[in-house]
TrEMBL record:
It comes from Thermocatellispora tengchongensis. Residues 39-58 bind DNA. Residues 16-76 form the HTH tetR-type domain. Pfam families: TetR_C_34, TetR_N. Gene3D superfamilies: Tetracycline Repressor, domain 2 (1.10.357.10). Keywords: DNA-binding. GO terms for molecular function: DNA-binding transcription factor activity; transcription cis-regulatory region binding. This is AcrR family transcriptional regulator. It comes from the Bacteria. InterPro entries: Homeodomain-like_sf, HTH-type_TetR-like_transc_reg, HTH_TetR, TetR_C_34.
Length: 217
């Protein structure tokens, strides 16, 4: 889309379309090369805008990806709710949480950068909107998990859900190393033990948490 077309956007619905085009371009770039490697200039170029004009829609690169992260939280919520079965046991709940995270590499990548990068250099309003999304999704999923799995209280279920997202933010980068580390792991089996497999590791950790939470009542 040309920059002139962007500049002609005056009506609210047109501006929203432009925002969605920017988010779509940022999503595609992140899926291709990882969130860390995408610059504001790269996003601007992908949608045919000067960086200065991108600020009409998003103040910073971080705000773009913080909004994408909020969208990914909602997408994860829908996926988990779709898969939770009535009368699920702790193991089934853990499987749903872990598998739906594994199927969302962009969400995991965004989670891994949220506290270290994306929550910096943003407005208070953008930070508030993101935090309310994450808190709201975690709370709603906690209530859903507690309904289908009486093994947990609602607070315990909410903690399990929040821990799943937190573990994903730590384990995803370790399981998907940069090229230098991937080469090192391939050549040195002793060091390769640091490359943890994502799904088995997060399931094991969540099962340990699921077993331990009721004992702390």
């Amino acid at each position: 889309m040309s920059e002139a077309a962007f500049l002609r956007a005056r009506r609210p619905e047109h501006k929203q379309q432009r925002r969605e085009a920017i988010l779509a371009a940022a999503r595609e770039l992140a899926l291709r090369s990882g969130v860390r490697e995408v610059s504001l200039g790269g996003v601007a170029a992908a949608v045919g805008l000067a960086k200065s004009n991108l600020a009409r829609y998003f103040a910073t690169r971080e705000e773009i990806y913080l909004e994408l992260a909020a969208q990914e939280w909602h997408d994860w919520e829908r996926a988990v709710l779709d898969r939770l079965a009535p009368s699920s046991g702790p193991g089934a709940v853990v499987d749903v949480l872990a598998d739906t995270l594994a199927e969302r590499p962009l969400f995991c990548d965004l989670l891994s950068h949220s506290s270290t990068q994306l929550e910096h250099n943003v407005t208070v309003e953008a930070a508030r909107a993101f935090k309310l999304t994450a808190i709201g999704v975690t709370a709603r999923l906690g209530r859903a998990v507690a309904r289908v799995c009486p093994h947990f209280t609602e607070d315990e279920a909410r903690e399990l859900v929040g821990s799943a997202a937190a573990l994903a933010s730590l384990l995803y980068p370790a399981a998907n190393p940069p090229p230098v580390l991937a080469e090192l792991y391939a050549s040195d089996p002793e060091i390769a033990v640091a490359c943890l497999p994502f799904v088995p590791t997060i399931k094991r950790m969540l099962m340990a948490l699921a077993a331990g939470l009721p004992t702390l009542r």
